[in-house]
Amino acid sequence: MTSEIIDSKDLKSDPVFGQLSFDGHEQIVFCNDEDTGLKAIIGIHNTTLGPALGGTRMWQYKTEWEALNDVLRLSRGMTYKSAITGLNLGGGKAVIIGDAKAQKNDALMRKFGEFVNSLGGKYITAEDVGMETRDMDIIREVTTSVTGISESKGGSGNPSPVTAYGVYMGMKAAAKYKFGSDKLEGKKILVQGVGHVGETLVKHITDEGAQVILNDINEARLEELSKKYSANVVLGNDIYGLDLDIYAPCALGATVNDTSIAQLQAKVIAGAANNQLANEVKHGKMLQEKGIAYAPDFLINAGGIINVYAEVAGYNKEESLKRTENIYNTTLEIFDLAEKENITTHRAAFNIAQARIDARKKEQNS
Questions:
Q1: What one-character-per-residue DSSP string does 228-247 give?
Q2: Checking DSSP bridges between strand 90-97 and strand 38-46, what pairing results, if any?
Q3: How many Å apart are CA 350 and CA 188, to the nearest integer?
Q4: Consecutive 10-residue runs of the chain (366 residues): their mean pLDDT?
Q5: pLDDT at 16
Q6: Could you give the CA distance from residue 58 to residue 129 in angstroms, rounded to a whole number?
Q7: pTM score of the predicted model
Q8: CA of 182: how far to CAs of 179, 203, 268, in Å?
Q9: Residues 90, 46: contact at Cβ < 8 Å?
Q10: pLDDT at 13
Q11: How far apart are CA 306 and CA 303, in angstroms?
Q12: How many CA atoms lie within 13 A of 319 on its CB side?
């Protein structure tokens, strides 16, 4: 048996530590199982405040590098999401590489659950894009390090409705700051991405009398929801120059970038997507200079983690909704702080979250 000698110049250097999205992550776990075809990455960013809790996303990434970048960005975001909402949790996330509709099965879920279990509670998983409550139930068969299981099994259920409620609260707060009133009646709102969270958000703002415009890559879904909510539809990516009051990104991240900001007519950005700013510093500043009120995503989309944290902390659905409703007040505080200190809203939210983490670390080291 011979082994091939690989020239070092053919290898990518620093596959994790050299990634632009690497931010002092504590641990990255690469999961591989030939029998089930599982290829997954678990990112644990920071556990200063508690175990790293964050959902698992199943997505057909173009490359493994793209998957790694996504899990690094997402797990980092979870650290600050938990910190700013006052939860005793760290930040973690997982991605499974594959088509959820074609490749997901119970054996794959169980095997992934075994990898989660091997971390001894340092990472707790939950539902995200491409996953369902039933998948969490399957994972629960092999590990207790999972939240968002069915209510019939004693869990908190699908976190999407609570996530959407938090985004709705954040959107109303942003409207209050920008327009002087949190009333959304008559406001032109573009919701980009109408999955579980996006649809529930559409229901909230439709019930309040907003003029809703829908955008999604799934045209059949758009047709269905257009009829259901009497909403207008815009196809394709040429959407940022529309005459809007509020832009709600609820699909994948990085839609707020050089191109979209240059075209954007909306006065408020408030949506459920993670990592909406392609570059946090640069694009946060561009929005500030353009006078667009940006409600930080890791704050206003925190309803989901507040909901699943109930399984860890032992509080009920009523308490979950109460804590999620408080996103309204925290969002207003962020806008006021950003204006007072002449910094971006993203920086204001980040500073508050980081201060909480630093204070806990100081306690632990004293």
A1: HHT-EE--SSTTTTS--SEE
A2: antiparallel
A3: 29
A4: 45 70 94 98 98 97 94 95 95 98 98 98 95 97 96 90 97 98 98 96 98 97 97 95 98 94 98 95 97 98 94 89 96 97 97 96 92
A5: 81
A6: 6
A7: 0.90
A8: 8, 17, 12
A9: yes
A10: 54
A11: 5
A12: 11
CA separation for the pair 343, 339 (Å, rounded): 7
CB 147 within 8 A of CB 53: yes
Q: Is 93 a residue of the active site? A: yes
Question: 295 is written with which tokens?
Answer: 């409600």
Kindly state the tokens that stand for 129: 């894009």
The pLDDT value given to residue 270: 98
Decide if 177 contacts 345 (C-beta within 8 A). no
Q: Which residue has 């009920």 as its token pair?
A: 316
Whole-Å CA distances, 9 to 4, 5, 6, 236, 339:
15, 12, 8, 41, 49
Joined together, the tokens standing for residue 9 give 């110049």
Q: Of 81, 93, 122, 178, which one is the catalytic site residue?
A: 93
Give the DSSP H/E element, type plus range, for residue 49: none
Beta bridge mates, 196: none
Alpha-helix runs per DSSP H in the chain: 64-84, 100-103, 106-117, 133-139, 160-179, 196-207, 219-229, 258-263, 280-290, 297-300, 303-313, 317-325, 327-341, 345-365
